[in-house]
Amino acid sequence: MKIRLHSHRNALTILQNEPEYQEAWAEIQHILKNLTDERIIECYEVYYKEKNKSLSTSINKLLKDDFSTFGWQTESAIFQEPQYHDIKGDYWRLDMAKDNISIEVAFNHSTVIAWNLLKPVLASELNHVQKAIQTKLGVIICATQDLKSAGNFDGAVGTFEKFIHHLRPMMNQLSVPLLIIGLEAPSSFRLSEIKVGSRKLGQITYIEDELTIL
User: Fold this and answer.
1) Which residue, 7, 34, 49, 132, could crosslink 80 as a Cys pair with Cβ 3.0–4.6 Å?
2) Rounded to two decimals, what is the model's pTM?
3) SS3 state of residue 19
4) Is the model's pLDDT at 139 over the cut of 70?
């Protein structure tokens, strides 16, 4: 899958040049490159065709499975104290973490973009609450506007473009290096929305077939 990058506080330079990050950065690049159209289609058809109208859950599952294969810790708690560590859901948890890097896969509502950006900061800065993990740099994986459209994402989902828009006014709060990675739309297909009874579901539509019809 093609990607777009935006580096906050020199995150990309650090990932490419600092020895402590290079192995983990190579894994991130490999996992994103391995996020092929074929794998996304197969995952959607097998697990989500009868449940979801967008590609977000399929991409999320593939990323989580692949990062786990490389030994990344998933759903890692940021804090150790029980009232934060044991709470249900992902509010005080990172999606993935390894080798001083926090990762958030952010396909949720645009109103929580600021929170998605702040979680890697909480994981990387010292805090009055006892920490369960200590990282130094954050990576946010999100959808570009093109993927949001082609993948039939919910209209309220925050995009790569909106994440970048948040960086300047939050510069003082986002005190650690952050790399924003925007996933581009699939090159060979898109997900069309169909109605099945009262439900909205997705249907794989190959771009080649659309061009043939035209």
Assistant:
1) 132
2) 0.94
3) helix
4) yes
